[in-house]
Predict the structure.
Amino acid sequence: MIHKLKIWPASFVAIMDGRKTFEVRKDDRIFNEGDWLELQEYEPELRAYTGRTTTRAVIYILRGPAFGIEAGYVVMSIR
């Protein structure tokens, strides 16, 4: 499955340059290992998409409540 998600510029840049290898999201979708995240850069001050996108594979998921992750949230390892 491909999930299309908004992502703010600072996080988008960190993913693009390899510093950020995870994504934290509310667990309001059915995220699974093997899914793909289509991350669409969104500028909140302009309330507009920038047109830049990147796609990453979900390789591991940690669901809350565990290890300080709040119930209803997930941390996804992406590549």
